[in-house]
Write a structure and sequence with these properties.
By secondary structure, the protein is α/β, with parallel strands linked by helices. It folds into two domains: 3-221, Rossmann fold, CATH 3.40.50; 225-289. The protein has helices spanning 41-48, 71-76, 93-103, 108-121, 137-149, 167-180, 193-197, 217-224, 236-245, 279-289; strands at residues 3-11, 17-26, 29-34, 56-61, 64-65, 78-81, 155-159, 185-190, 202-207, 210-216, 228-233, 248-254, 257-263, 272-274. Strand 7 (155-159), helix 6 and strand 8 (185-190) form a beta-alpha-beta unit. Helix 4 (108-121) crosses helix 5 (137-149). Bound molecules: adenosine-5'-diphosphate (ADP) and magnesium ion. Magnesium ion binds next to helix 1. This is ATP-binding cassette domain-containing protein. Belongs to the ABC transporter superfamily. Residues 3-233 form the ABC transporter domain. One of its GO terms (molecular function) is ATP hydrolysis activity.
Length: 291
C-alpha cells in the first residue's frame, strides 16, 4: 500500500490556503501527522478520503489517481475516523455500526462478523447494547474506530483520535492503532507529540499548510541531538531570563534544585550538561528553527 502526494495545494473559497504545495510518500505502518491547531492536518486528510478536491497537485493510492471515476475504487480501500464524529446518538453501539455497514453496502452477514470481531478487539463487546450517547469520549472514539474498520481498509485515516481522552484511554487507542497497522497503512494526526513517540516510526510535521519535516522519528531526534541542555538554575528569575533567549522544554525541581531543559546550538554560559533529546525536544527545536 502506498500513497503518493505531489505538489498538493488546497485553497478554500474564503481564500485560506490550508495545504500549500505539499509532497509526501506514505507506505505501510503508522505514519504520524503532527502539527498545531490550524496547521492543515484535517484538510490534508479530507483530500485523502476524497471528501475534498484539491486546487492543484496529484494524489494517488497504489497508483490509482484521485480523479472523477476512481473515487469509488479509492473509497473502498479507505477507512476514516473524522476529528468530529457524530454517530447516531439514540442508536445502540451495535445498531449504529450495523447501520453504518449497511450504508457502506457491506453484506449483512459479513458485517455482523466484522462488528463482533472489532468490538472484541476494541474491548467494546460488553457495551454494545448501550446507546451511543451513553458512551464516554474514549468509548465513542473506539466505536468510531470500529466504524472505520468495517470495510477492512488498506488505508486507515485517523484524525486526532486521542484528543480529550484520559491517559489510560489514550494509551488504549494508541495501542489499538498499532495492532490495526499490521499489514495496513495508518495515517494518524495529532497535536500531541507524546502520541507519536510510542506509536510510529515515521512522521510529517506540518505548520501553516507546509511540511517542516517528513521522515523517520529517529532522524528528527538526531537533528536536535547535541543541542539539548540540562541546566541547574538559582531561582525563577533566572528561568525567566533564560526563557528570553532559549526555548525551554521542561522545568522541574530535582533533589531540591531547579533544573531546566533548554535548546541551544551551543553550550549556554551557565552550569549545564548535554542531555538526551526526546521527540518533544526535537519538535520544539524544529518549530523554533522555522518561526
Ligand atoms: N471549510 C473551510 N473553509 C475555510 N477555511 C477552512 C475550512 N476548513 C479549514 N479551514 C482553515 O484551514 C486551516 C487549516 O485547518 P485544518 O485543516 O482544520 O487544520 P488542523 O486540522 O491542523 O487543525 C485553518 O486556518 C482553518 O481555519
Ligand atoms: Mg484538525
Amino acid at each position: 500500500m502506498s500513497v503518493k502526494i505531489e505538489d498538493l495545494t488546497v485553497t478554500f473559497r474564503n481564500g485560506v490556503t490550508a495545504v500549500n504545495h505539499v509532497n509526501l510518500n506514505i507506505t505501510n505502518g503508522i505514519y504520524g501527522l503532527l502539527g498545531e491547531n490550524g496547521a492543515g492536518k484535517t484538510t490534508l486528510m479530507r483530500v485523502l478520503t476524497t471528501v475534498l478536491k484539491p486546487a492543484s497537485g496529484k494524489v494517488s493510492l497504489d497508483g490509482i489517481l484521485y480523479q472523477e471515476g476512481n473515487y469509488e475504487k479509492i473509497q473502498r480501500k479507505i477507512g476514516y475516523l473524522p476529528q468530529e464524529i457524530d454517530l447516531y446518538s439514540s442508536l445502540t453501539v451495535r445498531e449504529c455500526l450495523e447501520y453504518m455497514g449497511d450504508l457502506s453496502g457491506i453484506d449483512k452477514e459479513i458485517c455482523r462478523k466484522r462488528i463482533d470481531y472489532y468490538l472484541e478487539k476494541t474491548s467494546l463487546a460488553a457495551h454494545q447494547k448501550k446507546k451511543m450517547k451513553q458512551l464516554s469520549g474514549g468509548m465513542k472514539r473506539r466505536a468510531g474506530l470500529v466504524q472505520a474498520l468495517l470495510n477492512e481498509p488498506d488505508f486507515l485515516i485517523i484524525d486526532e483520535p486521542t484528543t480529550g481522552l484520559d491517559p489510560e484511554e489514550r494509551i488504549h487507542i494508541r495501542n489499538l492503532l498499532v495492532d490495526f497497522s499490521e499489514n495496513r497503512t495508518v495515517l494518524f494526526s495529532t497535536h500531541v507529540v507524546e502520541d507519536l513517540a510510542t506509536t510510529c516510526s515515521r512522521l510529517a510535521v506540518m505548520k501553516k499548510g507546509s511540511f517542516l519535516y517528513a521522515g523517520s522519528v529517529r532522524e528528527l531526534i538526531e537533528k536536535a541531538n547535541g543541542h539539548t541542555w540540562l541546566c541547574s538554575v538559582a531561582d525563577e528569575r533566572q528561568v525567566r531570563e533564560l526563557e528570553k533567549q532559549y526555548p525551554i522544554t521542561s522545568k522541574q525541581y530535582l533533589d531540591g534544585t531547579l533544573q531546566v531543559k533548554l535548546l541551544s546550538e551551543s553550550k549556554p554560559p551557565i552550569g549545564c550538561t548535554q542531555t538526551s533529546t526526546s521527540l518533544e525536544d526535537a519538535y520544539i527545536y524544529l518549530m523554533n528553527q522555522n518561526q
